[in-house]
Give the backbone structure.
Amino acid sequence: MAERIVVGLSGGVDSSVAALLLKRQGYEVIGLFMRNWEDDAECPAKQDFLDVLAVADVIGIEVEAVNFAQEYKERVFTYFLSEYQAGRTPNPDILCNSEIKFKAFLDHALSLGANKIATGHYARLSENQDKYCLRKAHDLSKDQSYFLYRLNQQQLSKSLFPLGDLLKSEVREIARQAALPTHAKKDSTGICFIGERDFRAFLERYLPKQPGEMETPDGRVVHQHQGLMYYTIGQRQGLGIGGQGEPWFVAGKDLARNVLIVVQGHTHPLLLNSTLHAQDLSWIAQTTPNKTCTYAAKTRYRQQDATCHFSALDEAGCNLVFETPQWAVTPGQSVVIYDNDICLGGGIIT
């Protein structure tokens, strides 16, 4: 009997091709559509599910829809709101992967008799001395290992990433040649439950406005803000500060005074950091990195790798020192650490 693989189908081209490739490789493929949000009609889940059904019909596989909205609210969205309320900027997609796609979804797939699960993530897996290694994708412009750094050995042992060795252009061509209805579908952007709509307007539904002042580092009031939770470090758009000169950026938050610190110029010293502290560390191989080695790190997705060193590393967290100052290091975001193309893990920037 062929191995049973349950593929997470989102309605996009990537997961569609992942299912197609596994089917061609002789696996018994079952598609699983996850509904993680159901609070409003703006969520595009209905159209996505129709696309999943159309893709499954072309490939010739069964599809099941499963509702993880309750798990998502408890494990991801509650954390998302609490972090914003505390003035930080979380990355819910990372938590969604570790808690929903590779936990709730994995558990459900195993209950269906699956040997493994597969997704359309751009990442690669390898084994080294009985340990699973998460590696960057061949297409570095699409690499998503940053979002997967919290996965553990058990989760990786049950996972497949069929697109890891392909370029995005190759994935779309495979879909086109196979006449998959998603071959030209635009990639989704942003957080799944917010989509293309205005982010601040969405947050205001859950976190009411708390107006205060925008100040320069020397205490000069230049404008009013609507609530510290609506802004993130490095933000330029939506500040509403007039006047001449260089553009304004968010450089910090004074939570005690409810003041947003703003500066002018992309290279202002307050936007650059040579060090950071991170907590809630997660190491994929379950062993901490070597403090004497040089590594690379990203403090946000799509950022170029930055050479760094550990100045402290223990169970409570780590201090990283960068050879080149990093722009807009943001509390609540994740720093992810690499040894060449191997993703070692990371933590939450504090």
Summary: Helices lie at 13-24, 45-59, 69-85, 92-111, 153-157, 168-177, 199-204. The longest strand covers residues 272-283. The longest helix spans residues 92-111.
